[in-house]
Amino acid sequence: MEQAPLDPERRLQPAPLEPLGLPDAGLESVVGEEAEGPRDEGPGDGTMTENNFWLKKIEISVSEAEKRTGRNAMNMQETYTAYLIETRSVEHIDGQSVLTDSLWRRYSEFELLRNYLLVYYPHIVVPPLPEKRAEFVWHKLSADNMDPDFVERRRIGLENFLLRVASHPILCRDKIFYLFLTQEGNWKETVNETGFQLKADSRLKALNATFRVKNPDKRFTELKHYSDELQSVISHLLRVRARVADRLYGVYKVHGNYGRVFSEWSAIEKEMGDGLQSAGHHMDVYASSIDDILEDEEHYADQLKEYLFYAEALRAVCRKHELMQYDLEMAAQDLASKKQQCEELATGTVRTFSLKGMTTKLFGQETPEQREARIKVLEEQINEGEQQLKSKNQEGREFVKNAWADIERFKEQKNHDLKEALISYAVMQISMCKKGIQVWTNAKECFSKM
Predict the structure, then answer these.
(1) CATH fold group of domain 245-351+365-448
(2) Residue 213: Cβ within 10 Å count
(3) Where is the PX domain (predicted)?
(4) Exposed (0-12), middle (13-18) or buried (19+): which is 244, by Cβ within 10 Å?
(5) For position 209, what pLDDT does the model report?
(6) How confident is the prediction for the chain on average, in pLDDT?
(7) Mean of pLDDT values over 366-391
(8) Phi, psi of 101 (to 5 degrees)
(9) Range(s) for CATH 3.30.1520.10 in the chain?
(10) In this predicted structure, what is the pLDDT of residue 352?
(11) What's the predicted TM-score (pTM) here?
């Protein structure tokens, strides 16, 4: 259920935020100066197609998947799948397309790239990766992550992930993403040198902020609820589709019994034999067609799964906002406490119970010099706290502006993609029904000629 659009400027009037982590250069020989882009633009400036300059200059594909055996970090032998990433210039030299780069990546490296993007671009709805292990499968579909059909669907999903990042107006300019496509050796070391793991927010800290924040932004609260509902709806849809696939598979395969019976019957008939044999053949073709039909259906299911996983990406943006709001509230509370302490020292009155107040009653008052020294320290801390609070306020405003701009971009993308996927799925179902009608029409003609 779609939430009504909310005005991102309703509560805050932020200044433009310069995107984090922009590259020094990006595919210089192919993209040229365009890779730098305008540094003062926030996410969401322009339309999706206007910002897809990378995809206008190069083609990105995950063209192959290869099963390999090697040793992991624990020096234990393991079997894994590697994927071949190719980037090819769209522009032609002497009538020939130039292959700019070709390298192999493991799924874990795709995970590392996405984790980096989540940390450095917390205001962006980062595209999700395809599932690591098959979910919502019907009984004839293998759940083995090394199954060739599953590996092929994941290859398509990984290619889609790279295209999503390359078409994003901010993420496409990231240097680590550029190196992911072009630098096979030492890429992991380059990512780890950014120190992004140290900047990642812990789950415990995020959970604490969720429950302790006093003034959550209603827009992000509603967005969080929407992402939960979106995930629930798509999960139910995928489960229903899996149950339908199971039953449909059984219905189609049972038609194979018609073929067997008609074939046996034709053996004892002279005049009707040819017609029965032909009808049986049509039934066999009908029964075997379900395998290709359900394989095609899996690709539509994968499109739905992408937005199932996008729901978590939306929640990640909401959690980051809750953390920033919680830090802001804690800074304001600490500043108010220091101001109260300073006022009490200056006036000699204590408004609330404190350990310092009890100490004063037991051991006597401080000397004027001691009091002045403490007031001076508190005033310095208050000045520093006011600057921090101002900085956190500005950072929060910038985050809200940039996050909401990217959320609006995501909504436009989601509405377009899901509409196209559902229409294509409906067209496929119509085509499947027409093929069934054609089979029975052919069988009818066979019976008529007997």
Answers:
(1) Substrate Binding Domain Of Dnak; Chain:A; Domain 2 (1.20.1270)
(2) 20
(3) 61-187
(4) middle
(5) 66
(6) 80
(7) 83
(8) -160, 155
(9) 28-200
(10) 56
(11) 0.78
Token pair for 283: 């039934």
CB 3 within 8 A of CB 415: no
Task: List, as one string, the DSSP characters of 101-121.
Answer: EEEEEEHHHHHHHHHHHHHH-
Burial 4-36 (b: 16+ CB within 10 A, else e): eeeebeeeeebeebebebebeebbeebbeeebe
Contact indicator for 166, 55 with CB cutoff of 8 Å: yes
pLDDT, residue 5, reads 44
Residue type, 379: E
Percent of the chain that is helix, strand, coil (3-state, to 5): 65, 10, 25
In sequence order, the 6+-apart residues with CB closer than 8 A to the CB of 107 are: 80, 81, 83, 129, 132, 154, 158
| Half-sphere CA count of 407, side-chain side, radius 13 A | 29
Chain Cα centroid distance, residue 93: 36
Helix (H) or strand (E) holding 166: helix 148-167
CATH architecture, domain defined by 28-200: 2-Layer Sandwich (3.30)
Domain with CATH 1.20.1270 in the chain: 245-351+365-448
What's the rounded Cα separation, in Å, for the pair 259 and 277?
8
